[in-house]
TrEMBL record:
Cellular component terms (Gene Ontology): cytoplasm
Name this polypeptide is given: Peptidyl-tRNA hydrolase
Native source species: Sphingobacterium nematocida
Gene3D superfamilies in the cross-refs: Peptidyl-tRNA hydrolase (3.40.50.1470)
Gene name as annotated: pth
Keywords associated with the record: Cytoplasm, Hydrolase, RNA-binding, tRNA-binding
Length: 187
């Protein structure tokens, strides 16, 4: 069985440690723990590893967030991964920082990366791991907040949250989304 794990983010040093790039951070830790290295391929940074007999392909789209669907669609076709085996790791303003939730489908909720995936990959029925970044910003400052770095307090908690997200990805591959939701969703 093949799985495609997609960490969403923006390429470029200026975005490296921003809230919007948490998908990249989780993908990096996933690759790091698997001992795999990244290659720059068409539309994405790419790596792969085996886990309990499964092929796990991991991408970080190089298309910028609002064109993420282009990379996801390309790699789904290339690797022949069905949509239910694609897991998108994404920042989410609608849930509090520290909350991690995996779900089998859902709306884009205004997220440009998810809108692009929805448009180019056949709708909303794909799994996603929502990494809560909260909505602690003044009115009209959403872009600055999302493209800004985690604050000092959040940075202290980040390694454990990224570790939990990696655990959720492994669980998704090994035992499926339903049990992962039951066992590992937080708050």
């Amino acid at each position: 069985m093949n799985y495609l794990i997609v960490g969403l983010g923006n390429i470029g040093r200026e975005y490296a440690d921003t809230r919007h790039n948490i998908g990249f951070m989780v993908a990096d830790e996933l690759a790091n723990q698997a001992g795999s290295s990244w290659s720059t391929l068409k539309h994405a940074y790419y790596t792969e590893f085996k886990q309990r007999g499964h092929n796990v392909y991991v991408i970080k789209p190089t298309t910028y967030m609002n064109l993420s669907g282009k990379a996801v669609n390309y790699w789904m076709q290339q690797l022949k991964v069905p949509i239910q085996n694609v897991l998108v790791i994404v920042d989410d303003l609608a849930i509090p920082f520290g909350s991690l939730r995996i779900k089998p489908k859902g709306s884009a909720a205004g997220h440009n990366g998810l809108k692009s995936i929805e448009a180019l990959c056949g709708g909303q029925a794909y799994p996603r791991l929502r990494f809560g970044i909260g909505d602690n910003y003044p009115k009209g400052r959403q872009v600055d907040y999302v493209l800004g770095p985690f604050d000092k307090e959040e940075q202290k908690e980040l390694p454990a949250l990224i570790e939990h997200a990696v655990k959720m990805v492994h669980s998704f591959v090994n035992i499926g989304i339903e049990l992962t939701m039951t066992n590992l969703n937080t708050k």
